[in-house]
Amino acid sequence: MKGHIHILGICGTFMGGIALLARELGYKVTGSDTNVYPPMSTQLQAAGIDLMEGYAASHLQPAPDQVVVGNAMSRGNPAVEYMLNAGLAYTSGPQWLSENLLHDKWVLAVAGTHGKTTTSSLLAWILDYAGLQPGFLIGGVPGNFGLSARGGGSDFFVVEADEYDTAFFDKRSKFVHYRPRTLVINNLEFDHADIFPDLAAIQRQFHHLLRCIPGEGLVVHREGIAAIDETLAMGCWTPTSTFGIGGTPDWQAELLADDGASFRVHAPDGTAHAVQWDYLGQHNVENALAALAAARHVGVPVAVAVAALAGFLGVKRRLELLGEVAGVAVYDDFAHHPTAIATTLQGLRASVGSGRVIALIEPRSNTMRLGQYRTQLAACTADANQVYWFQPPGLDWSLETMIAQSPVPASLGTDVSELARQVTAYARPGDRVVIMSNGSFGGIHHLLLNELEAATH
């Protein structure tokens, strides 16, 4: 046994991944959280990790060799205060990852405002399909692997590179710890209004990341994104490779179906490769291009990488089909930013044509709670036929004015059970219902499926 680490905030996707990696490396791992419930709790317990409810000082007695502190922890937390008063050794999750796993790896990092989880899952799958046995740490559960992290059996490691801050004692973005050799920047918009005052502050963090990429590395980025171009202009010492639909990128996709389920990849070597897969939306086509470009950098032949796409099983909570009842399909989607909401709905619209798309949306993220996007939210739902908005407790502003600006019929609710009943009454066979939230949305997913099932009897 290498030693004992205790993780504060262990049931978050990232910290849970750290726990799995530490256990795999031979550490004794324990952890505390206020949200000890499946699926993360069962995944951790199956790995032999002891979980403790809450943040009691007693969880750190006897003292572990090191405390790994999640970025949700703050001063005033009982475990944090005890840790500091007792002089325990502590670090952040990203720092622990860097020092214990990434320091001698070829790191492929996927950054950007949207698409990080899907793109990093695609990239890990392509490398695995090519026989490279990559390690990975992803902010979701890729269907091809069934877990969010593993150490791998090679020098390659794929990490979802988040720009959110590292810990209460380290306000740098998480991704500056990873020192990647291959970097993907999918897109770049303002987000995380709770920690960043404006887009320029985020660009500064991406600039710090670019300063760490070797001259012999590669920066893969979407073509024609002003915020990315401005960031690269601040300083880039590494070759770049671009991707996109249309324009003149190095990696280009030609859509063969409007919904993105079929497209042709035009690679930098002049070859063209047709793709048929089960994923919708132009944003997912772009995610695939980014993954192909990054995989090529570590030597995966284009034809092999393209062949892997057809076997990609997706990521939980990324337009994940939960079930179909009486012809009504219900999807779960993590979208929590206007651009993500719009692109998801556009993909569904292109797929169903004149069929009806019903959106249930909980604006739950910290940025949403602060009202940063209140003027943009209405327009992002234009591809839905009907929108049901949920006003979550603690939202700092009312959705009522936004409802009035909606380009499609919209209503506002404050009770998830009533919302499920309203959607059931409105839905008819052939409809697509997509539930959008980065949280549990009060369990509305199963409430709705149960209501739809009850309505058939």
From TrEMBL:
Domain Mur ligase N-terminal catalytic span(s) in chain numbering: 4-101
Gene Ontology terms for molecular function: ATP binding; UDP-N-acetylmuramate-L-alanyl-gamma-D-glutamyl-meso-2,6-diaminoheptanedioate ligase activity
Domain of life the protein comes from: Bacteria
Record: residues binding ATP: 112-118
Enzyme Commission number: 6.3.2.45
Keyword Magnesium found: yes
Cofactor: Mg(2+)
Gene3D superfamilies: Mur ligase, C-terminal domain, Mur-like, catalytic domain, NAD(P)-binding Rossmann-like Domain
GO biological process: cell division; cell wall organization; peptidoglycan biosynthetic process; peptidoglycan turnover; regulation of cell shape
Pfam families: Mur_ligase (PF01225), Mur_ligase_C (PF02875), Mur_ligase_M (PF08245)
Enzymatic reactions: UDP-N-acetyl-alpha-D-muramate + L-alanyl-gamma-D-glutamyl-meso-2,6-diaminopimelate + ATP = UDP-N-acetyl-alpha-D-muramoyl-L-alanyl-gamma-D-glutamyl-meso-2,6-diaminopimelate + ADP + phosphate + H(+)
Domain annotation Mur ligase central: ranges: 110-295
UniProt entry keywords in alphabetical sequence: ATP-binding, Cell cycle, Cell division, Cell shape, Cell wall biogenesis/degradation, Ligase, Magnesium, Nucleotide-binding, Peptidoglycan synthesis
The Mur ligase C-terminal domain, residue ranges: 317-439
Biochemical pathway: Cell wall biogenesis; peptidoglycan recycling
Family to which this protein belongs: Belongs to the MurCDEF family. Mpl subfamily.
Record-linked HAMAP family: Mpl (MF_02020)
Function per UniProt: Reutilizes the intact tripeptide L-alanyl-gamma-D-glutamyl-meso-diaminopimelate by linking it to UDP-N-acetylmuramate.
NCBIfam families the UniProt entry points to: mpl
Protein known as: UDP-N-acetylmuramate--L-alanyl-gamma-D-glutamyl-meso-2,6-diaminoheptandioate ligase
Organism: Kineobactrum sediminis
